[in-house]
Structures are given as structure tokens and as C-alpha cells.
Amino acid sequence: MTTVLFTCAGQRVDVVTAFQRAEAFIVAADLNPLAPALYHADRYVLPPAYAHPEYVPFLAGVIAEHDVQLVVPLTDLDPVLLAERRDELGALVLLPDAEVVERTSDKYVAHRFFEERGIHSPPTWLPDELPVEPDFPLLVKSRRGFGSRNIFRARDRGELDFFLAHTPVESMVQAVCLGDEYSIDAFSDLEGRCLNAIPRTMIESKGGESIKGMTIRDPELIELGRHVAETLEIKGPATIQCFRTPDGRHEITDVNLRFGGAFPLPLAAGGAYPELALALARGERPEPRLGQFRDGVVMTRFFSHLCLAAAEDGTLEPFSEELPEPVVSEE
Questions:
Q1: Are both 24 and 134 inside the same structural domain?
Q2: Along the 331 residues of the chain, how does pLDDT read in single tens digits?
Q3: How many domains does the chain contain in total?
Q4: Is residue 62 part of a domain?
Q5: Residues 148 and 216 in one domain
Q6: Which pTM value belongs to this model?
Q7: Is the same domain home to 140 and 156?
Q8: What is the Cα–Cα distance from 307 to 193, expressed in whole angstroms?
Q9: Going by DSSP bridges, is the β-strand pair 209-214/298-300 parallel, antiparallel, or unpaired?
């Protein structure tokens, strides 16, 4: 059985349980002891913050103790660090080379890379590079943002100047995309070959994550996902976001090097990404299966919960809510 360490596990119960169904043993790590994914894993650990100097040594100790073969980050917080220091960890880190991770983490650098490689991306400027009379509306966006944080829509020059003056993060300015929005869930092997790319519609999203969507067998989007993944030299999962403009052009707005928030949809469609990841950890070389997924699978997400109680050693553990009556002692 392959042992997998998920870092910054957070709420990604969907990913944890999918890898368990693929017969992996899961160790989940998160700073927050209330992170739900911890309590669905086979083991869990509470590391220091990713910016702490002991973060990587702590993970290396966990990997050695549990004989971890595969490390998978689940947020945008620690991938640059893990890619840069992968040699210290002692397990396969499911990320591209450090320069690729850094390139995609900075959305302005990614935009320039796309332009250099002939991949369409919406017009984007640094604040001091703006044209004298840009077309509005425009977006002020964090260069290293995630979860739709620190994105502001400016309708005119006054709003643009205000948002640029008050945004709390290093930002860029981007044209508002017209047309239909799509995401492509791609997965590549350790040679950078795209094994599959599954497009889906963005019916509804909240906080930057899709909560309703449908897989579509669109040859142009499948090829776009393959081309972007292989041009970027991605290894492992990636979520590629784009707009199809009224003239049929595809503009890439973001590439995230992780399993997307809509991970259950490509999973249900037959993407088998956990199985592919585990195969890579075993040293296997799966063949590409582009286009092999179920078309028209619709996902609608909902809230769930997990209740915890203090164990005898002071830690938290799940408990059954089917309690006998009464739940309080009688006077």
C-alpha cells in the first residue's frame, strides 16, 4: 500500500477519501486542529506554519516515520517551498520543477510566459505599465492570489486608482474577459506528458471554487489543456482556467498546480487521477488517456460537517451524534 502525505489538508476530505478508495494509506497535515480532512485520514499531524523554519524538517520527519512515498500539497500556500526543498523530504513530491511552480504562482509572470509561447491570455499590466486610456472595466488582481481574494472590479479611472492605492497586496491590472468560462482539470506524468485533460463548465462558483459544473467533451478545450500543461512542463495535477471569447479565442486566466476545488467532478467522470498519482509514486509510466472520461456529468456541491470531542489524551476525535437520551445528567 502506498502512503501519501497531504499538506495543508484543510477541508479536502474529497481528495483524502478518493485516495483511500484507490487503496492508499493517508497521512494528513494541517496547522489547524479543526481541519476536517485530518479526521478522515488514517493518521494526522499538526505541523508548524509553512513559513516556519522547522516546517520542512517536520515534514521530513513525518515522511521517515510513516514511510511516505508521495507528498501532495492541497493548497497554494506551500508548493514553492516544497518544490525548492524536495530533496530534503525523502519522497516524491507531486509538483513540477521549482521554477515552474514559481512561474505559475506569480500570475503576471505566468501571463508574460503565455504571451511568449503564443498562448492567449487577457491583456495584463503592472500598475506602472498601464496605457494612458485603457478600456474599462478592468480588474485589479493579486499577483499571488487564490480563492478569488483581493480582486476588485474597476469601472472607471477613479475606481482603478482607488483600488490600486488601497489593495493590501502586490497587484496587477487585467482586462475583463468576455465569453464563457471553463476549467480544465489536467494531470501530467513526471516527464511532463499530459495524461488527461477534462474540461468542465463553470455553472456557479463561490470564493473562487466551482460548486456547480458539468464535464464536456470539447476537443478544442481538451487540446488546449494538453498544450498548456505540456508547454508549462507541469508534473502532477493542474487546474487551467480560461474564457472562450466571442470570436472563438481561448484566453488563459489562471493555472493552479493542485487538485481543483471541483475535484469530485473529474473523479466521477472517470479521470482516475488518484490511481495515476499512485502509479507515478510506484515508478510506473501510465500511458496518456486524453479524452477518456464521461461527458455530461453534472456536479452540485453542498455543505457537510464533522463533530469532534476531546479524547482522553486531550486530542480531538470524531464521535457519533447518535447519542442515547438524555444527553445531560438529571438533577
A1: no
A2: 999 999 999 999 999 999 999 999 999 999 999 999 999 999 999 999 999 999 999 999 999 999 999 999 999 999 999 999 999 999 999 999 999 999 999 999 999 999 999 999 999 999 999 999 999 999 999 999 776 788 999 999 999 999 999 999 999 999 999 999 999 999 999 999 999 999 999 999 887 788 899 999 999 999 999 999 999 999 999 999 999 999 999 999 999 999 999 999 999 999 999 999 999 999 999 999 999 999 999 999 998 899 999 999 989 999 876 655 555 554 4
A3: 3
A4: yes
A5: no
A6: 0.93
A7: yes
A8: 42
A9: antiparallel
Same domain, 151 and 188: no
Q: How many CA atoms lie within 13 A of 137 on its CB side?
A: 13
Residue 86 lies in domain: 2-95
- In angstroms, rounded to a whole number, what is the distance separating the alpha carbons of residues 285 and 221? 25
Secondary structure of residue 278 in the 3-state scheme: helix
Q: Which among 200, 218, 199, 195 has a CA at the least distance from the CA of 275? A: 195
Place of cell 488582481: 141
N-terminal to C-terminal alpha carbon distance within the chain:
52
- Opening angle at CA 294, ends 209 and 202, nearest 5: 25
Q: Which three cell numbers stand for residue 303?
A: 455543505
Q: Which amino acid type is present at position 96?
A: P
Closest CA to 187 of 58, 292, 316: 292
CATH of the domain at 46: 3.40.50.20
The answer to whether 143 and 104 have CB atoms below 8 angstroms apart is no
Instruction: Note whether residue 202 is domain-resident.
Output: yes
Residue 286 CA neighbour count, 13 Å, CB half: 24
C-alpha cell at 262: 471541483
